[in-house]
Design goal:
Number of helices: 14
Largest sheet: 8 strands, mixed
Strand content: 15-25%
Number of strands: 17
Radius of gyration: 22 Å
Strand order of the largest sheet: 4-5-3-2-6-10-11-9
Amino acid sequence: MIKMIIYSNITKSQMIKKYKKVVVKIGSNSIVDSKTKKIKSKWLDNLCKDIAELNKTKKIVIVCSGAIALGAKSISNTKLRKLEDKQAAASVGQIELAHQWRNKLGKYKIGVSQILLTLEDSEERRRYLNARNTISSLQSKNIIPIINENDTVATEEIRYGDNDRLAARVAQMIEADLLILLSDVDGLYQGNPKKDKDVKKISEVFKIDKKIEELGNYQSSELGSGGMATKILAAKICAGNGCATIITNSDKNRPISNINKKNSTIFCPLTSTNSSKKKWLLNHLKPSGSIIIDTGAKNAILKNKSLLPAGVIEIQGRFKRGDVISILVENGQKVAIGISAYDFNDAKKIIGKKSKEIYKVLGFEGREEVVHKDNLVKLST
């Protein structure tokens, strides 16, 4: 059962006070000067005052963009287009970012660490749990993790492409209850505020539907790879995990302590009975393959039952046992996502078979289910 948490009568500052685990995401446009391509030092000083204040009562994680923007000048005087050039720039810029954070938060006797993640680190369950445990250990020692995508090793196929979704996955990973996205706009508008000064801002979003998602198409980022569309997607990921999201303008002396209804949009969270594993499954970005099922299997899944080989029609993709796969009906509708008990070769061999026939077909005693109900999440249809 899922229901809405509503905060209409609570001010933003009051809301921030009640949260215990907060992820703060800083975009490239916020931390790097678009003209000089250098860190906005005074701005970062003021932000660190806010973070130091939050750190007294909350567990904080920072997801910080800007490495490529900072390192770009060292690689080329022109716009970086090749992936390897962007990766090289990231490796240069990461050193500068880490140095700045260490010095500025060090004034408040707060330690920092650097964690670089790829998409695979959040998609593969063991690596996901390892990252979560590392962050927890650091926080217990008053060390704030500074997280960025590992652009130096990530390829186009295995990267987030923006730090908004990375921040959402980190928020899910540590079970945060608030994600703050610092941007170059003060929230979500009903149009483009840079072209239309009279366009109205939306202060509160209770449900992220297609209409809300379409509002994100008007804005892109000058320095970074994200825009409003990726922020809305990040908010959607967080909402399903019981985490609120605030988008606010970073162009203030104290961007967090000055959050209010006029300069931000809050996306309200949902409450869910899903386990931590099922929340992780639900927000998986790139499943390894697909299983096509018949109507009987679909009905069984909707009744919270496991997927048996008898209901499988087709196997798509080259997935391994333990990989996350999509479960679809014949018309292409995605009805569930789950963890496969078989690799794609063995799964193909038992298509349409009864569970008691698995040993005869494969020559070994496998699972009765292709996807067990404990490793499966049904989707809204």
